[in-house]
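Complex 414.
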Amino acid sequence: MTTIPRLGALALACACLSARAGDVEVLHWWTSGGEAKAAAELKATMQKKGHVWKDFAVAGGGGDSAMTVLKSRVVSGNAPAAAQIKGPSIQEWAREGVLANMDTLAKAEKWDELLPKAIADGLKYKGSYVAAPVNVHRVNWIWANPEALKKAGAKLPTTWDEFFVAAEALKKAGIIPVAHGGQNWQDFTTFESVALGVGGADFYKKALVQLDAATLQGPTMLKVLETFKKVKGYTDKNAPGRDWNLATAMVIKGEAGMQLMGDWAKGEFVAAGKVPGKDFVCAAAPGTAKSFTYNVDSFALFQLKNTANQKAQQDLASAILSPEFQESFNLNKGSIPVRLGLKLDKFDDCAKLSAADFVATAKTGALVPSIAHGMAVPSATEGAIKDVVSQFWNDDKMSPAQAQGRLVTAARTK
Ligand code: BGC
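Predicted structure with beta-D-glucopyranose bound:
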């Protein structure tokens, strides 16, 4: 009979452990208060499974800086296990041949049954899963400080006309009407909500998803641009360059009355200990109550060589879709679970409204992808349109008609 010497046994045990535990490096841009709490849920989940979490956070709302860093890492052959990649960019990365096929896990865990089909389709390349989703963010929201509204004698607006009435009242009361951060993705976020509210879901789809030239050139788009520029008049002079979470903080403190932002803003209110319905209020952005701009955060999974790291990556993808994680993560993130059929008992009324509208708008065709958050068009086209929208926002000499002409040209960018 062979006996294993003590030291040998120890070495064997260590070898087993390290075969199980892997490194999981995850690129994301969740660095604000609420976002960081949500990211910490992911880290804790992976650590509980015995893996080593390697945080690859690249600050910058909307993720433009994160995407630049990701490109240089992948080009140098040093991809992370997972990266926060969304919408058509998932297909762009898959075409490069660098993403891992997750079908074995997806089949075993029945992802096709757990996810809405439209979302599942976007996570697949040539029929195979290459990314795992964490949530559904709604972008077309308006957030407001009820005390500030009260002081101004204003009410939470449901139309763009009401919005400007409220903004005027807030201004008269000495409160900054609209908290805004002048960064191009924030300008674009406001723009898409104005487009949806002024033009409706069919217009939005034709103009900003199908990029139909006639619609982009038409009178509705002109009205969208005029309305969008009018919003700027109610922002403060320190807006340029401000981070979105600092804009949310202005609403939290009552320095500003309203913010047009996706529901990651709710994560900030909640992280600051604020209670929805009491300390802050939410509503669909003006004119958009019957539509829904969706933004699904998902992790694309890169091909890895090391088997322990591959196992950690599989565990990450599996954990992301578990009911426990879907709940704890989304409670912090401000979004709703992407997994179907979960109970929302612990979620607040904003999340419940979002979930109900998500289902309702999917039936009416008014569920539309967010162009400002990488869900609607290829990244090059998105970038070109985003630039025009920001140039128009910033340049008070550019007329809406001039901006419209540039928009039509930008939409042709491939
Ligand atoms: C992401 C959110 C993030 C927000 C601000 C969006 O594009 O989908 O997860 O919180 O940007 O950084």
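Residues 336 and 351 are 6 Å apart (CA to CA).
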